[in-house]
Amino acid sequence: MPSVTLASNTDADVTLGAQGHRNDRTRCKPARARPRRKRHPGARTESIAVILVMGIDPGVASTGFGIVRLAGGQMTAVDGGVIEAPPGAPLETRLARIHSELEQLIAWHEPAAVALEDLYFGKNVRSAIAVGQARGVAMLAAGQRQVPCFDYTPQAVKMAVCGTGTAAKRQVQQMVGALLGLARAPESDHTADALAVAICHAGHARTAHALEPAAGSAVTA
Questions:
Q1: Cα(170)–Cα(140) distance, rounded to whole angstroms?
Q2: Domain that holds residue 99
Q3: Is residue 71 part of a domain?
């Protein structure tokens, strides 16, 4: 698996939606293209266990996503980037765009699990509600593909990536790059946060129960 360099917000992969609208999705690009039919190993006895985990950092303006591959105890980045919702568009239009883009990503990568940060209600309740709405459409996209979702508190994610639950965003970005062997750290904190929660779940995926959705609260540090 080649190293993956995460693109900046100016490096957009532009596609056309069903209604002809431009979908600007910032993506990371592998050093060379991966064949479509070889995303997963064949069902042979010599094949090692491979798990793909999709991390999502939801937001109504920008939603980060990251795909992490766990094989033989080693983690690598497969894909990652930011889904930009149309600025100034009605909320329902933004949510529809986020759902459509995530649905396509899930269909393409076929992750075994989707990991998200647990919703945090701080001082800005209005912002938390908006994040919850984006989080809901992300879970809907996963549910429509029968992909289980998992919650982790921000402290648990930072602990898994940085070894401390109080790490700063820049530290998270740097550690994500180091853990996944990237040529450089993700420039977008949305991408870094999505990859970080994917790393967090991939670490838990080393245990047998990690692909079974937990009933109840999110995992804490």
A1: 30
A2: 4-28+49-208
A3: yes
Q: What is the pLDDT of residues 154-190, one digit of tens each?
A: 999 999 999 988 899 899 999 999 999 999 999 999 9
- Are 98 and 28 within 8 A, CB to CB? no
End-to-end CA distance of the chain: 31
Burial per residue of 110-136, b for 16 or more beta-carbon CB atoms within 10 angstroms, e otherwise: ebbbbbbbbeeeeeeeeeeebbebbbe
Q: How far is residue 74's CA from residue 81's CA, in Å, rounded to a whole number? A: 21
pLDDT per residue over 54-91, tens digit each? Answer: 999 999 999 999 999 998 888 999 999 999 988 889 99
Instruction: Please work out, in degrees rounded to the nearest 5, the angle formed at the alpha carbon of residue 195 by the alpha carbons of 16 and 55.
Output: 65
41 is a domain residue: no
In the chain, the number of structural domains is: 1
Distance CA 152, CA 98 (A): 21
